[in-house]
């Protein structure tokens, strides 16, 4: 990287236990055991206040993890931003291309391999599964966003949503993509128990985080903690979209 060529500054905002905006220019490489030929940035973890761990990963050609990721009560999820990957779960190989994704249940683990000639960029996620008596464990889900139904969000034609995982009580989490056409916005400022980890895929927006309006754009990561006020509207000349996690289908413990 070499010497700086300007003042040291950053758009990133960290509010432990509340929310965080993490911009790409400040990311550093985190060395994670059993991952080879990878540049990994941990962008959310319990150290921040999140109940999950989320990573942004760039895997070189020939890269892989040599030990299963997840399992023993930890469910995992992977979304391909760029390139292609092979994922092995319980002896089955799944081939993922750009916008492909896979969910791995908490009793299994995944091996991730880049068998192509180019690097691959992906979002990686893990959290501890919350079992419920009488409800079966979730199952492997593998698909591509291109195959999913796009529906209007809250009956608005300029905001759409895509749901990645089944709406089944076995799943205590989901991933979605929200897309806002220029000028599109949430219908109100939300306040809810769920938390989110959002990776911005396209465009630019203004985001309300705990009643602070901040500018965000493609490549940023946002963590939103429980009950943090949140909403956004798209700015610029192209759609503003992000892929994000959400915990669901569980009664909060006391």
UniProtKB/TrEMBL annotation:
Keywords: Hydrolase. InterPro entries: Cupin_2 (IPR013096), RmlC-like_jellyroll (IPR014710), RmlC_Cupin_sf (IPR011051), UGHY (IPR017627), UGlyAH_cupin_C (IPR044697), UGlyAH_cupin_N (IPR044704). The keyword Hydrolase applies. Residues 177-240 form the Cupin type-2 domain. One of its GO terms (molecular function) is ureidoglycine aminohydrolase activity. Coiled coil: none annotated. This is (S)-ureidoglycine aminohydrolase. It comes from Tissierella praeacuta DSM 18095.
